[in-house]
Amino acid sequence: MEQYTVTGMSCAACSARVEKAVSKVDGVTSCSVSLLTNSMGVEGTASPKQIIAAVEAAGYGASVKGGQGQRSQAADRTMEYEEMLKDRETPVLKRRLVVSLVLLIPLLYVSMGHMMWGWPLPSFFDGNHVAMGLVQLLFAVALMVVNQKFFISGFKSLAHGAPNMDTLVALGSAASFVYSTYALFAMTDAQLKGDSAAVMSYMHEFYFESAAMILALITVGKMLEAHSKGKTTDALKGLMKLAPKTATLLRHGEEVEVGIEQVHIGDIFVVKPGENIPVDGIVKEGSSAVNESALTGESIPVDKEPGDSVSAATLNQSGYLQCEATRVGEDTTLSQIIQMVSDAAATKAPIAKIADKVSGVFVPVVISISVLTILVWLLAGQTIGFALARGISVLVISCPCALGLATPVAIMVGNGMGAKHGIMFKTAVSLEETGKMEIVALDKTGTITSGEPKVTDLVPEEGIGEEELLQAAFVLEQKSEHPLAKAILALGIERNLVRENADDFQALPGNGLTANWKGRRLAGGNRNFIGQNAVVSEIMEKQAQQLAEEGKTPLFFSRDGQLLGVIAVADVIKEDSPRAVKELQNMGIKVVMLTGDNERTARAIGAQAGVDEVIAGVLPEGKESVIRSLKKHGKVAMVGDGINDAPALTRADMGIAIGAGTDIAIDAADVVLMKSRLSDVPAAIRLSRATLKNIHENLFWAFIYNIIGIPLAAGLWYPIFGWKLNPMFGAAAMSLSSFCVVTNALRLNLFSMYDARKDKKIKKSKKKETKEMKKTMEIKGMMCGHCEARVKKCLEALPQVEEAIVSHKDGTAVVTLAEALDDAVLKKTVEDQDYEVISIK
């Protein structure tokens, strides 16, 4: 996605206009414009020159982020984002408002204070109504010059055939001013003729204060809105402030401080206690506790030793570290997080399309209603002043801004909240859709479990101590490279056992190990192997069987033909996994565990975690087809961390990658959990639901405000209840509407995403029962497994195809369809791959 900065937008109608203009450019596949960050994300093959030209033709300005489209280094990119998010509007609007108020107060004193409450005026005004009118005119002109931006932007967009909010304000203020100026000249003529009744009549037709007050009140609203919008991006600004500006490199044995952009992969950098780590790297020397809360939200420091990885912007708390740079520039974890949050802000949630459609026609419709209102009241016999006041009220009370901001401000705050807690939503779509999931499929290894085997039980034979059993196993496993051996070695180190070398070490793959130690023969391995080296008692057999049923792997150890005991090793479930599963179930979500383990082991782990369903014996390539079948029963989220999870993550409605997983899994996912905690999955769903609820509230208030306000302003209730709206109050209401929407979105900052007490069960979507249709294709030309894979891939790429089972031996492809598909399409799809379709039944 190429990102652009857009200038000149003032409301939702502007962003809709820009989006429409760019979408028409040849080669653009998708375009989304954010009014909140004044940015635009464009995908496709169109050149930046074409896109900028389209924006300019629509009456706005645009420039590529990062210079001439080149990908800048992280430091430049961060500065660029900081510039993009910098609140430049509020100070300018504040100055404009102060000047406006200085001019408005005397205008109101003359126009309303004296006329309505008889406040005193200088003696030269006595009886000189023309002078009073001229003073009001001068103050109004001065205030209009100060707020000329409304007129320039409003009339410019009107000239381009795309009226916006500024057009409404400019038309309302200008209409008040023009009519008041006409009334002033008419009054002057009446005074010259000595017609005092006409003079007093025209005095009441002055709307100079309305023309000025409209501008001042809208400026108040704009300032409050700009200030609140600035608050919504606080989380992203906070991330950017974390980006270190310098690093201390070790060159020729000396410490040299350089700018962050001068650090390259392979450089050795040093980090002292209290300093931030400048780039991602691996610890070479030293040990320390590192606070990673900036990236993961985890407040407990993580111990780092040689070989461990460290991330940019994390805080070295205690020790001195020497590290080798592995990721620099925009490849660091921090830069990727900033990029993800920024990309999410540049995309548009599906729910925003409703507001966009309305915003696109809103202003022209309001102008039409305003003109119609004036005509109807004139035909009804009302005065020009009365009719004009109603028309102006319609113009100034209508607010497309509230509609345009309803979705993006909530998305930005929700995204920032997620980023603060280590939950990254890649797009606005993923933030909206995550809360709608009905089934969560969890990969067992590394997701439910820690992914690292640990010793769970020590069961010594009668007459043998635990330490004696562990010491023998510790010595025997020293030279083994098996993952289960690492678990025994880790426990031995933890218990401070002495490292001793064994002689004549032999490893028999799939069976066990043998070695000589202090003149005695040690053996260890599975039940079949140990049976050849020692006698296993019936009691020990039963205990080992029990351990196996619990999902653990029992390892037998013997010495000189005598059984020493059993050590059980298992990939233990994470501490928070059962609680996370329970929280998901309380939300009305079905939890399914996928694993390649055998049925017995899988069921034991599944029972500990408390999942609803266990699907065992799933090969890596089979996970994708399992997700495909689960999708028939509802919306599916897949949670995984490995390379083999990537196809399943892509196939699922929502792919969620555990942050400690591989880069491939993270790239394939829609949501990334920076911490390896399963409890972040219900937290992400909770946050998504809260954000969507907030968007619904915002849209409701934005729509209801206009539905109630426009008829009131038009005087619809005047004949019945005598209600009419002064244009000034209409402007005040308009200025507050956007402020209220943004403030409501900011309430999300108070949301506790880890609090499960208010969880509600989701209403299950009623899936339409679709009759599966199967077609058997007879295909000529398939010679091997590669041919099978090629045909399968091209058929399953069709949206109507649920599954394709292809056999080169039988020369067939059995295609399962979710909906009707013409045989000609199936035939063409396969023949495009250079195979011949003989028949389709």
Give the overall shape: elongated
**Ends apart, CA distance between termini:** 43 Å
Number of helices: 31
Mean pLDDT across residues: 82
Strand content: 15-25%
Spatial strand order of the main sheet: 14-26-25-24-15-22-23
Using only CA atoms, what is the Rg?
36 Å
Largest sheet: 7 strands, mixed
Low-confidence stretches: 67-74
The count of strands amounts to: 30
Helix content: 40-55%
- Structural class comes to alpha+beta
Description:
- Helices cover 49% and strands 19% of the residues.
- The protein starts with a strand and ends with a strand.
- By secondary structure, it is an alpha+beta fold.
- It is built from 31 helices and 30 strands.
- Strands 14-26-25-24-15-22-23 form a seven-stranded mixed beta sheet, sandwiched between helices.
How do the strands and helices of this protein lay out in sequence?
Elements: E1 2-7, H1 12-23, E2 28-34, E3 39-44, H2 48-57, E4 61-64, H3 74-85, H4 89-117, H5 129-146, H6 148-159, H7 165-192, H8 196-203, H9 208-232, H10 234-242, E5 246-251, E6 254-259, E7 268-271, E8 280-285, E9 288-291, H11 293-296, E10 302-304, E11 309-310, E12 315-316, E13 321-327, H12 333-346, H13 352-379, H14 384-397, H15 400-420, E14 423-425, H16 428-433, E15 439-443, H17 444-448, E16 454-460, H18 466-476, H19 483-494, E17 503-508, E18 512-517, E19 520-525, H20 527-530, H21 538-549, E20 553-559, E21 562-570, H22 577-586, E22 590-594, H23 599-609, E23 613-615, H24 623-630, E24 636-640, H25 646-651, E25 654-658, H26 663-668, E26 671-673, H27 680-714, H28 718-721, H29 727-746, E27 773-780, H30 785-796, E28 801-807, E29 812-817, H31 823-831, E30 836-840
Parallel strand pairs: 15-22, 15-24, 22-23, 24-25, 25-26
Antiparallel strand pairs: 1-3, 1-4, 2-3, 5-6, 5-7, 7-13, 8-11, 8-13, 9-10, 9-12, 14-26, 16-21, 17-18, 18-19, 19-20, 20-21, 27-29, 27-30, 28-29
Helix pairs in contact: 1-13, 4-5, 4-9, 5-7, 5-9, 6-7, 7-8, 7-9, 7-14, 9-29, 10-12, 10-15, 12-15, 13-14, 13-15, 14-27, 14-29, 15-27, 15-29, 18-19, 27-29
